[in-house]
Amino acid sequence: MEVSRARIAGVNSRIKVVRTGLTASAALPGSPPDQRAASELALDRIILGDCLAELQRLPSQSVDLVFADPPYNLQLEGALTRPDHSHVDAVDDDWDKFDSFAEYDAFTRAWLAECRRVLKPDGALWVIGSYHNVFRVGAILQDLGYWILNDIVWRKANPMPNFRGRRFTNAHETLIWATPTRSKRYTFHYEALKGGNDDLQMRSDWFIPLCTGDERLKDAGGRKVHPTQKPEALLARVLLSSSNPGDVVLDPFLGSGTSAAVAKKLGRRFIGIERDPVYARAAQQRVDAAAPVDPQAFAAAPAKRSEPRVAFLSLIEAGLIAPGEMLEDERRRHKALVRADGTLQLGPAVGSIHKIGALSQGLPSCNGWTYWMIERNGQRLHIDALRGEYRQTHRAAA
Ligand SMILES: C[S@@+](CC[C@H](N)C(=O)[O-])C[C@H]1O[C@@H](n2cnc3c(N)ncnc32)[C@H](O)[C@@H]1O
């Protein structure tokens, strides 16, 4: 597994790779982990080195999100060819080879334990893997005390066929999303994801194409720079769903730098560790070329649940709705009278906007804010829009 020292020493000096950005005192050999100060974390850098050694130099509880795309331990049996006998460019690199499952497990346990130490208690771990390794990784991270929130199936739009026709086409990879402890305070931008998904909850199966075309890094000879470069869309979804602008993203297996480039584009800070100098250099060039998106475009939208609660009565008190007005459902099947005390009346029944909304449909519950409509300037709008207006006025006044 070791890349020879001569290879590392021969790294091009132009490359802006830093061995460590920590001060001498923070990185003193033998310092116990709890004495490494979080304030001394150097950010937005690619570290050339072995992640097991380099992770140990990072301060405890200093990172918001770890994205790890570790060796898969693919266990390939001989060269793979297409029906026309052409060679399939499979992952057969040294960095992916382990002598036994026991060796792979020990390696996995070591880096996962270090990541758990450097993660903030409310931080998040994402690991991507295939059937070759993801079950081992999942069991080990649970044994270490991580708490799994979801597993995501990344369904590939354009997977490689099964050339031998002996198994199903391997068309997905799995991402595990976990917290280092059983915390409820992890970041999840539920509303934003739903908004970007035609107002449907974002599901745990993501349909995203493989990294191809201009996004795929190629060398001067037109060969892929890295065999397992992940699509930026996949990383963007990970970062947008479970981190905030300014958060620190750590990738212990940086490869071609996908996570770092996306972090930079989306206003996150990053630390990447990569053992191979060729990949590290390519990653640095890629990060240097990545242009940050306008911060307005990724500023976190306020989650609905974190918005201040507004009572329907407050809208009446603020003059946005008058007692005696009528509310209707979208299809104009039910009309309810707005009463001065903030309740609605439908026939003999009186109750909250939610209760009367539910009653009118014969349902156990209803969100009255998105059910009832009112007319304003010849247009019909949901009363939720008036709630938004109320919130805006009161935020501005605060
Ligand atoms: C699956 S690839 C990551 C690909 C990356 N996500 C991308 O989009 O390009 C794994 C990377 O980890 C690196 N690697 C393997 N073992 C390592 C170790 N012990 N420390 C640091 N890097 C390592 C390999 O050189 C390889 O580039």
Automatic annotation (TrEMBL):
Top-level EC class: transferase
Catalytic activity: a 2'-deoxyadenosine in DNA + S-adenosyl-L-methionine = an N(6)-methyl-2'-deoxyadenosine in DNA + S-adenosyl-L-homocysteine + H(+)
Ranges for domain DNA methylase N-4/N-6: 63-284
InterPro entries in the record: DNA_methylase_N4/N6, DNA_methylase_N6_adenine_CS, RAMA, RM_Methyltransferase, SAM-dependent_MTases_sf
PROSITE patterns reported in the protein's UniProt record: N6_MTASE
Domain RAMA: 298-395
EC number: 2.1.1.-
UniProtKB keywords: DNA replication, DNA-binding, Methyltransferase, S-adenosyl-L-methionine, Transferase
Entry's family note: Belongs to the N(4)/N(6)-methyltransferase family.
Protein name in the entry: Methyltransferase
Organism (species): Camelimonas fluminis
Lineage: Bacteria, Pseudomonadati, Pseudomonadota, Alphaproteobacteria, Hyphomicrobiales
